[in-house]
């Protein structure tokens, strides 16, 4: 997503025109939102620039479809399960708008000084002519987002009669008695509606005219407002909570429906975690790969309700939990830096169990399923990481009585001290991307992963008691 700078903290360049006359003299012509996006997207593609900063895993699937829809000038629905980055994609659209755009200073809506649409602004334009004051709006202020909820009203989205203005003496038929809702106030911008099916059907009907006829109907009379908005929305393909649906006439008015998806491979899943997670301790790539495979195993498991999906936020939260466990262990042992080890993975199942929806009949076995799929992810990661590496010397050392303990009160230095000097330990660290002269915590993380892989392959035993895990013969 593009950086969401606050429009309050951004100052427009001083040389920009400040009146309609100056604007006209510079040859400025009004341009629609869809035309802006079309031109800016095309310019970025031609220049080889990335129009979608921060979007991972969609470059060959979702984004080409979305780009075609935007170039065609279509309103768009993003369809996908929870946690697939739909909202992030929509927020990135603001980066395709012109950086600065002129509006009428003091107008209720963001009207172009050379193309006013409300009666009040048209009257001001006639009275002031070239002296009509101009204000410049940053693109970050032209993106409006609404989370659809069942209690959303037509007044919230479109507008309603303002009783205060009526009390001031205006008649009910006067267009200036209207308090505009979210969509008209987003004039010359982007309106994003998250979870569109959650809008009551009668509220969805209110958007029909906005999208097609571009007029607004409020309290029995119609205002012809040539609104200029790009309407985008998100929805789940199957609303697993049965909250609602998108009515057919509204769905028909969206020009494009783009399906999103979860990351297609482990590397993309790891990239998402690296980008999104706020880690309080170091979590190496091998453990991030374990978590990525763990999430992918959950998405393919028959015991998990796949209609609700397993959000990418699960992997992010899992990485943050593992990092927190490492930081806690670092505080208890006094070891620095704080580096996550495989033992920290045990914290994931208990903390994040509620983030996964299981099939009926699996009640009471949730933690068991999570631990099984987590062990499978560890085995898959270790198998790939240590492929072709002979770990027999490490297994033999454990079999000869070199018991290795790990846990929340065992430092990396203590773990390594339990083993004799073995060349294979340096090779294990090298496979994990850890130089031989690195601090003990990082080397210990790689060695512990090798020990866990030997245990899962039934080449060493493991005993867990009182928060301490011991690898032995």
UniProtKB/TrEMBL annotation:
Source domain of life is Bacteria
Q: Which InterPro entries match?
A: P-loop_NTPase, Sigma_54_int
GO annotations under biological process?
A: regulation of DNA-templated transcription
Sigma-54 factor interaction domain segment(s): 179-237
Coiled-coil ranges per UniProt? none
TM region(s), chain numbering: none
Family matches, as Pfam families: Sigma54_activat
Q: Name one GO molecular function term.
A: protein kinase activity
What name goes with this protein?
Mg-chelatase subunit ChlI
Which organism's genome codes for this protein?
Saccharomonospora xinjiangensis XJ-54
